[in-house]
Structures are given as structure tokens and as C-alpha cells.
Amino acid sequence: MGFFEPDRYFSRISRIDIGRDLLAKGFRSVLLDVDNTILTRDTHEVPRDVGVWLGSARDAGIAFCLVSNNWHESVYQLADRLELPIVAKAVKPLPFAFVRALKKIDASRKSTVVVGDQLITDVLGAHTCGMEAYMLAPLVEQDLPHTLMLRHVERLIMGDRRPEGTPAPAPAPAQMRPEESPDSCG
């Protein structure tokens, strides 16, 4: 698998099956991105299904550490609200924050998966550190200007790959020639 290829690709975190996709694969820890992964960029809220999933994963014994390039006070407040450790100002995809996060939760690379919504920061960072990466579709389309540029690069790399369980778009209807149209005389 290439550095820019996610190990799995989901539409949102709640689509990750805790038993099958984490525990059965030996993952006991998750390094978790924040913006547009568990927190919407537009309303700055944790969607209900995301909160429920986080609670279920913790109940199943999964340890978490938030890893975010965000440096604003709000990211620390979110970590406090969720009662999760955090490494902010991460400068992902550089490996330093991932290593700090592993130490914070006393986890090994082999038993940890990185979950985030960006190919260049989350997936590349995870693979550079020798960890698997689960990529998520962003919660909302709203992004920072520099992230929008990275999204363009992501589309070039990912091509038409869609999140698991997402139906392929319906094919465009075939074009009829005018002489085949039921409205034509002839």
C-alpha cells in the first residue's frame, strides 16, 4: 500500500465497526483527527452519531488521543469536554505529534490506527510512522482555504474511489439521437 493510499475509507466514523474494523484487527488505540473528522467545520459541533460511536468504542476498551493541527483554544476545550488527551499544533504529516500521542496513551504503532479526513496530513502522517490509516469523508464541505487546495490534490490521487458502503453514482442516461426520440416523426 502506498503512502498516500488509506488502508480503509469510510463515509464517517460511525461507519467503522468497532468489533470488526478495530478490535478484530488488533487495534486497541486510535489517534483521532478533530476538524471535519469528529467536529463539524460549520457548526463546530460533534454530531450525535459521532458522540455515540466514541462512547461505544471507549466502552469496548479503545483508547483515544486527539491529534490536531489546530492551535485554537476551542480544540483544547473539546478535548476537555470529551475527556480525551490531545496533541495540538501537530504539524501533521510530520511524525513528532504522532509519536507524542502514542506516548500519551502508552500505545504501540502496531496496535494503533490513525483516523482522519485528510490524505496529506492524516494518511501520509500515519504511514510515515508505520501505522495504518482509516480515512473518512469530511463531515461537511466547508474547509479552510489551504485545506481546499489539499482536497484538490486528494481528488487527483484518490480518483473515483468512494467510501466503503457508498453507492456508486447512477450512470448518466444514454443520449438518444433525434430520429430515435419518441417525440420525433419519422
Features:
Rossmann fold; six-stranded parallel sheet; 186 residues; alpha/beta
Q: Shape from CA axes?
A: globular
Helix coverage percent of residues? 25-40%
Gyration radius from CA atoms, angstroms: 20 Å
What would the CATH topology be? Rossmann fold
What's the order of the H and E elements? EHEHEHEHEHEH
| Poorly predicted spans | none
How many discrete domains? 1
Distance between the termini: 57 Å
- Please give the oligomerization state of what you see: single chain
Mean pLDDT: 86
* Helical segment count: 6
Structure summary:
By secondary structure, the chain is of the alpha/beta class.
Describe the protein's architecture and organization.
By secondary structure, this protein is an alpha/beta fold. It has helices at 18-22, 48-59, 73-82, 96-104, 119-128, 145-158, and strands spanning 8-10, 29-32, 63-67, 86-87, 112-116, 132-136. It has a single domain, classed as 3-Layer(aba) Sandwich (Rossmann fold). The chain is built from six helices and six strands. The protein is globular and about 70 Å long. The protein starts with 7 loop residues before the first strand and ends in a 28-residue tail after the last helix.
Write the layout of secondary structure elements.
Layout: E1 8-10, H1 18-22, E2 29-32, H2 48-59, E3 63-67, H3 73-82, E4 86-87, H4 96-104, E5 112-116, H5 119-128, E6 132-136, H6 145-158
